[in-house]
Amino acid sequence: MSWLSNWNNYPIVEAEISNPYFTEEIPGLLSQGKPVIARGNGRCYGDVLLGSKVISMLELNHALLFNEVEGIFRCQAGMLLSEILQIIMPKGWYLPVTPGTKFITIGGALASDIHGKNHHKEGSFADHVVSVKVLKPNGHVEECSAKLNPTLFWFTAGGMGLTGIILEVAIRLKRIESPFITQRQVKAKCLDEIIEMFAEYSNYTYSVAWIDCLKRGKSFGRSILILGEHATKEEANDRRLKQSFDIRVPFVFPSGILNPITIKAFNAVFYTKNYKRIIDSIVSSEKFFYPLDGILDWNRIYGRRGFIQYQFVVPKEIGKKAISEILKKITEKGWGSFLAVLKAFGPGSVPLTFQMEGYTLALDIPMNKNLLKFLDLLDEMVRDFGGRIYLSKDARMKPEIFFATYPQGNDFAQYISSIDPNGVIQSSLSNRLKLK
Questions:
Q1: What is the pTM assigned to this prediction?
Q2: Which residue ranges form the domains of the chain, and what is each CATH number?
Q3: What is the pLDDT of residues 280-313, one digit of tens each?
Q4: Is 325 exposed, middle or buried, given 0-12, 13-18 or 19+ CB atoms closer than 10 A?
Q5: Cα–Cα nearest to 14, from 22, 23, 5
């Protein structure tokens, strides 16, 4: 038995961990009488993919097919996005959707139906999946896609690993001319202005905003909008990728290092470093998509108690009002985050989708004894605004909030119960939300 947690170090559970080297080993792990859940690299948050018995997929990380003409890539579920990028980028291809870290597995990407800075233009990860192989709880392997066995496919996308063990994933890649991004940064003076900017710059493929969640008064919600497009060969102008040097947080910081004073100081520096209202540049795709990946073990900054990443989405028509009211609650508490990210979403496409046409805000809040009760209050606000909480970042949402905010939550619960009547696949999240 080992102590296990995800990236935010909360919660920590005691788990029996299996590390199969071959796919053929996995069916036997499902028949040992103890509920199991598959797990990738643990870069999700909360109690997703935690349980009393965990199957680590990290050794099942082999590339199986790369069609360099059509841009189809197939691999085992344990392959990291970073490993995929090493293969596809030199051939002029890129991931169709990527989150803020490349250190997640492709199986985890599908189970969480990840979204990126381009959701408003190109959808979520599931929209680019060609096919999937799933080991169902009954021990049978089934291939599925949007057309082949679609119910299994669409509930596996965003299903948090509860439909079975994802074994293989094939995706359709995006053609690129260079490994660089043409980037534009635009300063917004307040929340009203940044919401208007998302509409003004909606033609950009990639957009995301850093937002100062502790500033009050006229500068409430001041932000920096970061926009991007894949650079052409001409725009890259024979640039060469510079060798990057990762730094590592060497130890777990004492609790309390991140507090209103230090976060306000960081936010002030981050906002004022953009000395002009608009700054155009050409940056590496690494710097644009994964700015934190160069800081290894950055989660240690939050101390041993860990942190909660709270991410919600609210509908577009009420987005400004909803985000304003929720941000004011957070500002009053002084529990803001130096990693507060605002994005615009297009419509969601999968049954258990987190995404909806609107705005999503994600904040990292250091764990403290009063935080969970406060987040229950925010959950109710999100529900009342017609929004929802991202399951892949969730550690404590109550089941009644889940079923009230995910329209197909009951259908999902009934489906996984029908294909898994004996409860072979279970996780801390599925037990907490009473999904089985």
A1: 0.95
A2: 180-395 (3.30.70.2520)
A3: 999 999 999 999 998 888 888 888 889 999 999 9
A4: middle
A5: 5
